[in-house]
From TrEMBL:
<feature type="binding site">
    <location>
        <position position="176"/>
    </location>
    <ligand>
        <name>Mg(2+)</name>
    </ligand>
</feature>
<feature type="binding site">
    <location>
        <begin position="194"/>
        <end position="198"/>
    </location>
    <ligand>
        <name>GTP</name>
    </ligand>
</feature>
<dbReference type="GO" id="GO:0005525">
    <property type="term" value="F:GTP binding"/>
</dbReference>
<comment type="similarity">
    <text>Belongs to the TRAFAC class OBG-HflX-like GTPase superfamily. OBG GTPase family.</text>
</comment>
<keyword id="KW-0460">Magnesium</keyword>
<feature type="binding site">
    <location>
        <position position="196"/>
    </location>
    <ligand>
        <name>Mg(2+)</name>
    </ligand>
</feature>
<protein>
    <recommendedName>
        <fullName>GTPase Obg</fullName>
        <ecNumber>3.6.5.-</ecNumber>
    </recommendedName>
</protein>
<keyword id="KW-0479">Metal-binding</keyword>
<keyword id="KW-0342">GTP-binding</keyword>
<dbReference type="InterPro" id="IPR027417">
    <property type="entry name" value="P-loop_NTPase"/>
</dbReference>
<feature type="binding site">
    <location>
        <begin position="216"/>
        <end position="219"/>
    </location>
    <ligand>
        <name>GTP</name>
    </ligand>
</feature>
<dbReference type="Pfam" id="PF01018">
    <property type="entry name" value="GTP1_OBG"/>
</dbReference>
<dbReference type="GO" id="GO:0000287">
    <property type="term" value="F:magnesium ion binding"/>
</dbReference>
<comment type="subunit">
    <text>Monomer.</text>
</comment>
<dbReference type="GO" id="GO:0005737">
    <property type="term" value="C:cytoplasm"/>
</dbReference>
<dbReference type="Pfam" id="PF01926">
    <property type="entry name" value="MMR_HSR1"/>
</dbReference>
<dbReference type="InterPro" id="IPR014100">
    <property type="entry name" value="GTP-bd_Obg/CgtA"/>
</dbReference>
């Protein structure tokens, strides 16, 4: 089952490299009796770097990397020779990865672009060799700096999905079914609530080789903001989605009311969610005839564009995609 591979949270114990010590050394050459100091600098310790990669959708590949340790820098040596820098460690992550310190909860870095490289933990600076400490009065410094220590931190990497459109609806509304017909994603579908336990992402092909990303998140129920059902954990996945697509099934007792309950839960969770553009789709409308559609139209919520769709008979889907596309690019 693809969805069990959705890993959006990993803890990694990170350690960046120590800087190499600077060297204490003096020039020794046959015809230079009192050679001056020539101890080179130590190399920098390896950094731990996060790098954005659009080919990745989850943090699954980091699941078993419990410890990451970067190399120490090498010590400097005579003849002003600097030590080599410790090798950096690159951790490729999907866009939308946020790294926090487990201890303080503080956000350390965030990766949002392809190829973006951000230093999660910098390696220690290399120490200066004794050639740097020569002064007019001190011609033979027998002192060099030690390298700076690397850093250690228990880091938590979390993925915030960067979907263009997030599906919002009660369990069983047909969210996963919609994703499965408009994208190549194969989410589990069933006629019982909470089939979807973790988010699924799909790339929806649009006209002229364009595409957008749709996120199917687990159903939201009344009280979700207080932790009912699957609770808040997955609501955070739609924080960044640029638009929200509400799905209310055609056989709901009161479409307007269901829509309003969903809105209220989102508002309680994070009022900023309501600033996003939204669309309402009445799903499973293959169960309606023209007459019923007309009836429902009389009592739809105000202030939101509403479409009637059916994933099963594939009706209204092109209009839906057009609408989504125009809002994403609004
Ligand atoms: N008639 C009809 N049934 C549909 C349609 N779309 C989905 N269903 C059915 O509705 C049920 C629920 O579909 P899902 O896609 O699993 O619903 P969901 O919103 O993902 O549900 P959760 O994952 O539990 O939140 C399934 O039995 C689907 O076959 C549709 O367009 N027409
Ligand atoms: Mg589902």
């Amino acid at each position: 089952m693809a969805s069990s591979n959705f890993i959006d949270h990993v803890r990694i114990y990170c350690r960046s490299g120590n800087g190499g010590p600077g060297a204490v050394s003096f020039r020794r050459e046959k015809h230079v009796p009192k050679g001056g100091p020539d101890g080179g600098n130590g190399g920098r310790g390896g950094n731990i770097i996060l790098r954005g990669n659009t080919q990745l959708w989850t943090l699954l590949h980091l699941r078993y990397r419990k410890h990451v340790t970067a190399e120490n820098g090498e010590g400097g040596s005579g003849q002003r020779s600097s030590g080599a820098d410790g090798k950096d460690i690159y951790l490729d992550v999907p866009l939308g990865t946020v790294a926090r310190s487990e201890e303080t909860g503080e956000v350390l870095v965030e990766v949002t672009e392809e190829g973006q490289e951000v230093i999660l933990l910098p390696g220690g600076r290399g120490g200066l060799g004794n050639e740097n400490f020569k002064t007019a009065t001190k011609q033979t410094p027998r002192y060099a700096q030690p390298g700076e220590e690397g850093q250690e931190k228990l880091c938590v990497l979390e993925l915030k999905l960067l979907a263009d459109v997030g599906l919002v609806g009660f369990p069983n509304a047909g969210k996963s079914t919609l994703l499965s017909v408009v994208s190549a994603a194969k989410p589990e579908i069933a006629d019982y609530p909470f089939t979807t336990l973790v988010p699924n992402l799909g790339v929806v092909a649009y006209r002229d080789h364009k595409s957008f990303v749709m996120a199917d998140i687990p159903g939201i129920i009344e009280g979700a903001a207080e932790g009912k059902g699957l609770g808040l954990r997955f609501l955070r996945h739609i924080e960044r989605n640029s638009i929200l697509l509400f799905l209310v099934p055609a056989d709901a007792d009161d479409i307007k009311k269901e829509y309003e309950i969903l809105l209220a839960e989102l508002r309680k969770f994070n009022p900023e969610l309501l600033d996003k553009n939204r669309i309402l789709a009445v799903s499973k409308s293959d169960m309606l005839d023209e007459e019923l559609i007309e009836e429902i139209k009389q009592d739809l919520p105000e202030g939101v564009d509403t479409l009637f769709i059916s994933s099963v008979v594939q009706s209204g889907l092109q209009e839906l995609k057009d609408k989504i596309w125009s809002l994403i690019n609004a």
